[in-house]
User: Fold this.
Amino acid sequence: MTLFDLTAPAISFFSVLMILLLVRRQRLGIFHTVWWLFAVFSMLSIGFFPSLVDWIGQLLGIHYPPVLPIILALCFLFIKVLTMDIERTQQEIKIRILAQKMAAYEAELHKLKTESSTEQ
Assistant:
């Protein structure tokens, strides 16, 4: 095993530490933690068993198997960005509904204040 073979495991180990630190500081939710741990352990398995990529690449009929992790990583990141956009859209809808409810409550409060001031 050369120093080059230890690069992916070292990066994976550092990534696991960062994820655990973010979870401990409550900056990363459970779903996101599972997502990133899956990515890190995938990278770790490729780092420890690089022949696995060659075997899967040949199984899928890919002529240059080292490209397979790059393609999978791009697909993984595409799905991650898509899910982030879906979550952001849902949050924007919730914020818009809350703003409309707050405006309705403020209008009702203003109406009650004007009614009580005219009665006195």
Summary: The chain is about 80% helix and 0% strand.
